[in-house]
Structures are given as C-alpha cells and as structure tokens.
TrEMBL record:
It holds the Pfam family NAD_binding_8. It comes from the Bacteria. InterPro entries: FAD/NAD-bd_sf, Retinol_saturase. SUPFAM superfamilies: FAD/NAD(P)-binding domain (SSF51905). It comes from Taibaiella chishuiensis. This is All-trans-retinol 13,14-reductase. The keyword 4Fe-4S does not apply. Keywords: FAD, Flavoprotein, NAD, NADP, Signal.
Length: 502
C-alpha cells in the first residue's frame, strides 16, 4: 500500500499549482484526474490540425513583478511559457448592437484612461476615479499583492454591489457599460455580483494581457513537468467515487476503477457539491451540505470554434465583446427570443502566415436549462454515451444562429469558414467538472457573503478545497486560491517569503 503526504483530486490549475508547491517542499504528492488530459479549464483540443482553447483565451498580470508572473516564476514555469502580448492600446474592444463605435480597453492604468477619454469628453476625472477604485479593491485583498493581511481589509470593499458602485463612480451610462462591457469574463449580474469580482478580474488584464501561443494547455503541461521533477505523480482516467474517513480524518480516495489512494492530507480541486457527494461523514453537518447545494453556479456558455480559410482574415491581436443591448448586465438574463444576447471573439494567429487568423472562437452565454432533456448523458474521453439526433440538431441550429449574428458585423468570418465544432453546457459540465456546466463555478452574492462563501478549510481537519469555487475564478484568482490552500500546510508567512524571493 502506497501512502502519499498529499492527495490532490483534480488536475485543474488550482490542483496542479498546489501540487507543485507542495512537492517542491519535498512532500510526496499524487494528483488524481478523471480525464485523459490534465488542466481542467486549461485544456485544449484540436481538429483539422488547429488548436483551440477550451476556456482560457488570455491571461493577465504576467508582466515581470506582477502577481501572476511571480507565482508562475516560483512554480518554475514562467521562463518556459510561450506568451504573446496583446495590443497595448486595445486588448479588449467593446461594441454594442449595430452601433459602429468601437470602445478600446487598454493595458496600463494611464493608457486605459488615455484611450477612452477622447471618446467621452469631460469624463477623464471619472475614469481616473474608476481606476483608483480598482486599485483600492486590489489593495484590499492582501494575497493579490502576495502579502499577509487581515479579513478586515476585504470587509472595507466586499459589500459594494457592482451595479450600484459603477453607477456611483460613473454617471455616464454609455461609459459605465463600456467599463462593464467584457462582463463575459465574470458573468456579473446587477443585483448580486460584488464589485470586487469585477475589479479583481478586470484589473488583472489592465495590468497586462497576454495570449498563450499554442494554447493554454502549455501551463498545465509545464506544471505537470515540474511536478514530476519534484517526484509527484499524476494518475489520469481515474474518477473519484468516494473518500474514506477513519477517526475523524480522511484516509483514502477511491476511484471507479477500484484504485485506492491513501494520503495524510487531501486537497479537492473540484466543485464542493461533488466533494459532498463523496463524503459520508458526521463532521459535515446537514446545514453545511444544504448551504453548499444552495449556492448558485454561474451561467454556462455555448461556444463555436471555427477553422478559417488561410490568408483571408487579418489577425486581430485583441478580443471583441459585443452586447446586443446597451446594457452590459442584461445578457446574463437573456430570454429565449433574445439569444445570443452577447458574444466574444477570440482570434488565433496562423503560425505559417503571421498577421493572419486561422481560427476564431465565438463564445456566448447559455442557460443550462436548455440542456434539460440530455442532462442524463455524458461524453468524456473515459465515459461516453450517445446523444440523440435532436441534440446534434440543436447544436447545429444554435451554431448557425450565433455565426449569423456575428456575420452581421464581421461577414468575413462566415464567408471564410471552413469547419467548426461546438461546445455546450454539457461539454463544460463533463470536461470542467462543474455540475451545471457553470463556466465560473459558484457565484458570490454581495447580499449574502457568508452564505455564499466557501472556505478553503473544511470541518474535516485534513481536507482542503481549492479551485475557482473557493475564491475568485480565472487564472489569477485560482492561482491565488492555490497559494492560500498550500499555505494551510506550509504556513502563509513561509510560503509568501519564498514566492517573493523568486
């Protein structure tokens, strides 16, 4: 019987990063992954000899000295990452309906203001105040600056509603909706989303924005490589089905194959509701289970990944976010006749023809309820089931609808489309491990902060939680959560000193 110091369940970014930091300290670490490919939201896939990102199309805060750069440097992967800096004056462009005006979001606080101010005469002081507010929020979350601090710092800003705060900071309605125009990054709602979610996500890209050349899976592959160098192991195609407890502590994780992984400490980098389904422990009270089950998961998405005819469409080193209405928070509550209510465009550059795009990904919101009749089916590499013709017809119809909507503004995408594949809420559920296909996991509610907050520690002393459900989502957010989880075993002061010395 092998026993590991730490058993990590789930090889998403949070799991792999935690595993690397612990293995670096000499601990024996096992990572258990249900899929063939590691990486969770970092996974890529290919068809027609083109690579596509499943979720992560760009990352932020990776300039030297910035938080993501420092964490990846400590993990030993920063120097090997192949990154391309996005357009400095417009990494995200925001557009509305059939309005021809394009609104740029630029890298760097002063440049962000400089690019938008000419489009909004008299609003430069407002933009300066907005940027100061982002900085204030970022400084109120100590780990985002890789320093120790207290919960009281967060309390100063955690009660701010995103919609109310933007109204207070930015009286001009169009400017306000431009600033929230890339809401697809965090699926914010008017009534429940805290401003800090908007601020932390958006600020990371304003700090610096990069694409992963060749796909985001390189992050996972490099972390796996570092983990192996430190003696850690990854066990793929192993779906956890239960966690065994003895005398108040977890002893082992069992899988569908019958394998048993014994450990002294456990980190679950999966949805907390899934963890609850594995546990039969009287330490987990019914009230806690009910609270976890009651936390809303973010909306899901529909994606069309397109292979383009080579040499036809110039590569845009920026992303595009379109909202059907002038209200950036409306799309998340779309009604059936309003779909698609928004979309994002993410171009991929042709390595053989620099300056031209060879792929484009289209992403829009989709409610998981639209998948109700196929919820019982699964389609992963290690677990497949056939889906009826109606499901494939649904995908084709929705893909055509989204492509036609995009083509109203960008006709060349439809004109030079060679082939495409789609992803539905079921795809995100099966490959990302989110029960409802929610793309950003559990969502915080500014009016119920304690009820919707999932702590890293659990009532079982040797079980920790990591990933996008225990804090802010996204590459930076999950990296911060991994630092917090790892620090529970190594000590926060000790770990931060080591990261900051890198």
């Amino acid at each position: 019987m092998r026993q590991f110091d730490v058993v990590v369940i789930g090889s998403g970014l949070g799991g792999l990063l935690s595993a690397v930091m612990l293995a670096k300290e000499g601990m024996s670490v096992a990572v258990i992954e249900q899929n063939k490919q590691v990486g969770g939201c970092l996974q890529t896939f290919s068809f027609d000899k083109k690579i596509f990102d499943s979720c992560v199309h760009y990352i932020g805060a990776v300039d030297e000295g910035q938080t993501q750069h420092r964490i990846f440097s400590y993990a030993g992967i920063m120097d090997e990452l192949k990154l391309k800096r996005m357009d400095n004056d417009c990494f995200d462009e925001i557009i509305f309906g059939d309005d021809p005006q394009v609104y740029p979001q630029a890298q760097g606080a002063s440049n962000f203001i400089a690019q938008l101010a000419p489009l909004f005469p008299g609003q430069q002081p407002v933009l300066e105040h907005y940027m100061e507010s982002l900085k204030q929020v970022g400084g109120s979350f100590p780990l985002y600056e890789l320093r120790t601090g207290s919960e009281s710092e967060k309390d100063l800003v955690s009660h701010w509603e995103v919609y109310e705060t933007l109204q207070r900071l930015v009286p001009d309605a169009r400017l306000r909706n431009v600033l929230a125009g890339n809401n697809l990054l965090y699926a914010g709602t008017r009534d429940h989303t805290p401003f800090y979610l908007h601020a932390l996500v958006c600020k990371s890209y304003i700090d610096s924005a990069y694409k992963c050349s060749g796909g985001s899976s390189q992050i996972a592959k490099l972390l796996w490589k570092r983990l192996q160098a430190y003696g850690g192991e990854v066990f793929r195609n192993e779906k956890v089905t239960g966690l065994a407890e003895e005398q108040g502590l977890l002893k082992a994780a069992t899988t569908a194959s019958g394998a048993v992984y014994h450990g002294r400490q456990f980190i679950a980098n999966v949805h907390p509701a899934t963890v609850m389904s594995w546990l039969d422990s009287n330490q987990i009270k019914p009230g806690y289970r009910k609270r976890i089950a009651g936390i809303s998961t973010s909306i899901s998405a529909f994606m069309v990944n397109i292979v383009l005819e080579p040499g036809r469409i110039p590569y845009a080193n920026r992303n595009t976010y379109w909202n059907r209405s002038g209200q950036s928070f409306d799309a998340v509550h779309y009604r059936p006749g309003e779909w698609p209510a928004n979309y994002a465009l993410y171009y991929g550059e042709d390595a053989l023809r620099p300056g031209f795009a060879d792929t484009v990904a289209l992403l829009t919101y989709m409610h998981d309820e639209e998948m109700a009749q196929w919820q019982h089916t699964h389609n992963r590499t290690a677990e497949t089931s056939s889906r009826e013709a109606a499901y494939h017809e649904f995908k084709e119809q929705k893909a055509a609808q989204l492509i036609d909507t995009v083509a109203q503004r960008y006709p060349a995408i439809k004109q030079y489309l060679l082939s495409f594949k789609t992803a539905t809420p079921l795809t995100f559920r099966d490959y990302m491990g989110s029960p409802d296909g929610g793309i950003y996991g559990m969502m915080p509610d500014v009016h119920q902060p304690m009820q919707t907050r999932v702590p890293i520690r659990t009532k079982i002393p040797n079980l920790l939680l990591a990933g996008q459900n225990v804090g802010v989502h996204g590459v930076l957010g999950v990296s911060i959560n991994a630092v917090a989880a790892t620090a529970e075993l190594l000590g926060m002061d000790y770990l931060l000193q080591k990261i900051n010395r890198t």
